[in-house]
Amino acid sequence: MDRNDYDNNQEMEDNSLDNQEQQTDTSAGIAQTAKQNAKSKQEKPKQKSGAKTLMSGIIGGVISAVIVALLFTTNIIPIDQQKNSNTASSESNEQSAPEIAETVASEGSNIASNMDEASKAVVGVINKQQQSVWTQSKQAGAGSGIIYKEKDGKAYVVTNQHVVEGAEEVEVVLSSDTRITAKVLGTDSFTDLAVLQIDGKKVNTIADLGSSKNLKVGDTVIAIGNPLGMNFANSVTKGIVSGLDRSVSIDTNGDGQPDWITEVIQTDAAINPGNSGGALINSKGKVIGINSMKIAKTSVEGIGFAIPIDEAQPIMKQLEKDGEVARPFIGISTASLGQVPPQYRDRIQLPEEIEGGMVVAKVQQGSPASKAELQQFDVITKINGNKISSILDLRKYLYNETKIGESVKLEIYRDGEPKTIELELVKREK
Fold it and tell me: Is 192 among the catalytic positions?
C-alpha cells in the first residue's frame, strides 16, 4: 500500500468515527440497556471449573478459526488486500533469501576479483621520441599493453604496433605506477601487434589468456586500458560482443590504399585513444581480445574492434622468438588495372572476358619472381586457380594458404596471351 492509499483509508476511518459519535445521542436508550445488562452479568460470581474454562477456550479458538476461514473464502476480507498490506515485509524477505543473495554475491565477487586481477596485468605503454638532436626523448604518445608471460626474470608485454611505431624509447607503466624501460622485441604492421620485454622483478600479475573461438554475439565483454593517457589509467568499460569476424582494411604504409584485411571482434564497450593494446576480457576475467581500433566519426557511436586472442597468439610467439613474422615472398610490386598510368595502358593487352587482375609494376632482382622470369606489365589473374583482383587477394592467399618453401602457380597474361608460371616461395627478408 503506498502513502496515498494510507491517507485515504485514514480519512475514511475518521469519517466513520464521526458518524458513530453522531449516532450515540439517538441510540442512548439502547446503549443504556446494554450497559445495565453488562453490569448485571459482571455482578454474577464465576462458577466455572478449570476444565470447563480450558474446554471453552479450545472451542472458542476453533470457532474463531472457522469464522476467519469463512470470511476469507467468501471474500468478506479480500486476500489481495491482506497481501498488499504485507508487501513491504514479503519483498524484504525475498531480497534477503539466502539462495538469491548467494547467487548475486557469488557472481559479483567473481567478476570484481577477476577484473581486479586482469586490471593489474594491463599496463601503460609510453612512446618516447626525440624532438631534436639537442633535446632528450619526450612522450610522443601513450597506449596500453598486456603482461602475458613471465620467464627467467623477464616479463613480456603485447601491445599494438602503432602504439610503439617510431619510438626511440619505450616505457611500461605498471598498475603500481612504477615505470620500467622496455625493449621492443618485434613488431608486425599487418596484424598491428608488437611484443615488448621488461624486467620482471616488480611484476606481480600475469594476464589469463582465454580463447576467442567460442565467442557469441551478445556475450558480455569488458575493455581495460588507459583512455586519453595515464591520467585515466586502468579504466574499465563494459559492453557486449556486437559482431564476429568483421573484416577491416588496413593501410600499413600511409599511401591511402588498403594493404591488408584483418579479422576482428566488434564491441560496443567504450574504446578511446590510449586504449589501444589493452585487454578485452570476458566475464571470467580471461583475455579474449586485444583492443586495437575504433570507428572515429561524429555520426558513429560504440563501434570498436579488438584482435582475437586466438589470432594474436601465434604472431606473439613469432615476434617474441624471431622479432618478425615470417611470410612467403614473391618479389614483385603490383598495381590494379585502374592504377596504371595512361601512357602505359597500351602495354597491357587482355581478352574482353578478363575483368580483373594485378599488373606487375616491378620485379625485384634475385627474387622468386625474377628467377621465374616474371616481367613488368604481366597481368596476374590467378594463383593456384584462385582469382586475383587486388593486392589484398594476393597477400591474403599467400599469407593464409601457403608456406615458405612451397611452389605456387601463377596464371598470367603477357601481350594478350595466357601463360602459367611456377615459382617457389621464400622468406621475406628485412
Answer: yes
